[in-house]
């Protein structure tokens, strides 16, 4: 099974304050892994490491058997997509339609004429069609977050790395997003959900970890 394998990961922004110390875990691509941690425990740092944005760690991280330090960003982006915690930091263009076009075609090999129809369907699902040509600076935080979720749907077959994915969403949208995760789970498509709160995700989680004492502690309780 494809996975991200993390072995003996150690990382510190400053030597005297380690964030991770010899932390190991495996993220199988067919499972939904949930990692919980208090504010400042290193959740976002972990996402940045996995997605190749932070390279100053020691230890080994393999994506499908390949050391991520030896894999180019473009190559990595073919198998994983990272939705950052801050909605605006996922934006790569001036309007949602341009943005989603880039998310769709940038790192996908199968981009063709049917792609604009798929984009429209995804925008319908997330109720953002009316926003498609508005400049991002006219959108609210929650609306921008939805554009990020649409980018995920356009990269459906990849492994999703999700940093606080439902923060800032209203209840309806949060429910739509959980349904999307349930559908994916049924198809054997996993993701990593990082959050300080698990309650909304309880029914979809396969494995649950806590960032504690600078490592990932598996929580085995029935959830
Ligand atoms: N670029 C940075 N430089 C120095 N320290 C940082 C940087 N980014 C985060 N930190 C610190 O590292 C710790 C973990 O941060 P972060 O991964 O954002 O936590 P979380 O997402 O769990 O809230 C925090 O103490 C934070 O202040
Ligand atoms: Mg964070």
Describe this structure in words.
It is a single chain. With 223 residues, the protein is α/β, with parallel strands linked by helices. The protein has 2 domains: 1-79 and 160-170 and 188-223, 3-Layer(aba) Sandwich (Rossmann fold), CATH 3.40.50.300; 87-157, no CATH class. The chain has 6 helices and 10 strands, in the order E-E-E-H-E-E-H-E-H-H-H-E-H-E-E-E. A 6-stranded mixed sheet has the order 6-7-8-3-9-10, with helices on both faces. It has a 4-stranded antiparallel sheet with strand order 2-1-4-5, with no helix packed on it. A hairpin with a 2-residue loop joins strand 1 and strand 2. Helix 3 packs parallel to helix 5. The longest helix has 16 residues, at 171-186. The model has no long low-confidence stretch (mean pLDDT 93). Bound molecules: adenosine-5'-diphosphate and magnesium ion (MG). Residues 43-44, 85, 163 line the site of magnesium ion.
Which structural traits does this protein have?
223 residues, alpha/beta, Rossmann fold, 2 domains, 6-stranded mixed β-sheet, 4-stranded antiparallel β-sheet, 28% helix, globular, binds adenosine-5'-diphosphate, binds magnesium ion
Give the CATH superfamily of the largest domain: P-loop containing nucleotide triphosphate hydrolases
**Topology order in helix (H) and strand (E) letters:** EEEHEEHEHHHEHEEE
Strand order of the largest sheet: 6-7-8-3-9-10
The shape is globular
Would you state the CATH class of the largest domain? Alpha Beta
- The chain-level structural class is alpha/beta
Low-confidence stretches: none
Strand content: 25-35%
Q: Helicity, in percent?
A: 25-40%
Instruction: Specify the CATH architecture of the largest domain.
Output: 3-Layer(aba) Sandwich
Instruction: Summarize the biggest pleated sheet.
Output: 6 strands, mixed
Give the CA-CA distance, first to last residue.
24 Å
Strand tally is 10
CATH topology category name of the largest domain: Rossmann fold
Bound molecules: adenosine-5'-diphosphate, magnesium ion
Q: Radius of gyration over alpha carbons?
A: 17 Å
Count of helical regions = 6
Quaternary class: single chain
Mean pLDDT: 93
Number of domains: 2
């Amino acid at each position: 099974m494809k996975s991200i394998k993390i072995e003996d990961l150690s990382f510190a922004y400053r030597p005297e304050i380690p964030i991770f110390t010899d932390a190991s875990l495996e993220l199988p691509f067919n499972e939904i892994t949930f990692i919980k941690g208090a504010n400042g425990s290193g959740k976002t740092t972990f996402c940045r490491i996995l997605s190749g944005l932070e390279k100053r760690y020691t230890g080994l991280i393999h994506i499908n058997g390949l050391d991520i330090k030896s894999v180019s960003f473009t190559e990595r982006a073919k198998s994983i997509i990272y939705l950052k915690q801050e909605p605006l930091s996922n934006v790569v263009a001036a309007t949602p339609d341009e943005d989603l076009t880039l998310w769709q075609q940038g790192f996908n090999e199968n981009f063709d004429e049917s792609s604009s129809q798929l984009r429209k369907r995804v925008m319908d699902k997330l109720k953002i069609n009316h926003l498609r040509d508005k400049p991002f600076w006219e959108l609210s935080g929650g609306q921008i977050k939805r554009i990020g979720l649409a980018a995920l749907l356009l990269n459906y077959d990849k492994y999703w790395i999700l940093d606080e994915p439902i923060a800032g969403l209203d209840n309806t949208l949060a429910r739509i997003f959980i349904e999307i995760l349930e559908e994916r789970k049924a198809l054997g498509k996993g993701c990593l959900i990082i959050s300080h709160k698990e309650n909304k995700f309880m029914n979809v989680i396969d494995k649950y970890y806590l960032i504690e004492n600078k490592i990932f502690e598996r929580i085995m309780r029935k959830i």
